[in-house]
Amino acid sequence: MTEATTVELRRIPITHPDAARLVEEVQGEYVVRYGSRDESPVDPTEFADPTGAFFVAYADGVPVATGAWRRRSDLTALGTTAVAEIKRMYVVASSRRTGLARRMLAHLEETALADGVETMVLETGSRQPEAIALYVASGYERIADFGYHCGAPEVRSFARRLKTGT
User: Fold this and answer.
1) I need a surface site. Which of 28, 58, 83, 131 has the fewest CB within 10 A?
2) H helices within 36-117, ranges in order?
3) 166 within some domain
4) Is residue 1 assigned to a domain?
C-alpha cells in the first residue's frame, strides 16, 4: 500500500466470499503460529444486526483486512455489561505495517460505540506479539481470561472502556 492507495471499510456478511477467504487466511496464520486452527464457535448471525458487525477493508478494491465485533451479554468487563468482543482482526501480509490494523480497530470501536457498546474485549495469544502491541498501544488492558480459550496458557485477554457509564 502507498499513500495513494484508496482504502474503504465495508460492512459485509461474514459469509461473503471476500470475508470467507480472509477468514481462511487468518486460520492458516493460526496453524503456523499455534499448530492448529481456532476452533472457537462462531455463529455468522452474531456478526449481523442487531448483535454485531463484520467489516472488510479494501485497498484499491482488493480485500486486505477484516475485523468484527459481537455483543457479549454474558460478560461484565471494566464495570459494564454493555460489552462487545472483537473477532477476526486480520491484515494480509502485504498490507501490514501500514496502519491498517489500527484503522480497523478504531472503526470497530466507533461502530460498536454508536451501537451502545461501552467496553470492547478480545482474546489473542502470546504468539501474536504484534497484536498485543497494537492493543496495548491503543489503550487496552489485561483482564481475566474469558471465552472458549479461557485457561489456555497462551491466551491473553484485554479490554478497553469506550465510554463512561451514565
Assistant:
1) 28
2) 100-114
3) no
4) no
Q: In this structure, is residue 53 part of a structural domain?
A: yes
State the chain's mean pLDDT as an integer. Answer: 94
How much is the pTM?
0.93
Mean pLDDT of 134-163: 94
The 10s digit of each residue's pLDDT in 38-65 is: 988 889 999 999 999 999 999 999 999 9
Domain contains 40 = yes
H or E element: which one contains 93? none
Tell me the CATH number at 116: 3.40.630.30
If one counts every other C-beta atom within 10 angstroms of the C-beta of residue 29, the result is 17
Q: Which residues contact 143 (CB under 8 A, 6 or more apart)?
A: 77, 78, 121, 157, 158, 159
Q: How many domains does the chain have?
A: 1
147, containing H or E segment? none
Domain that holds residue 157: 7-161
139: left (phi over 0), alpha (psi -120 to 50) or beta: left
**Is the bond preceding 50 in cis, omega lying within 30 degrees of 0?**
yes
Q: CA end-to-end span of the chain, whole Å?
A: 41
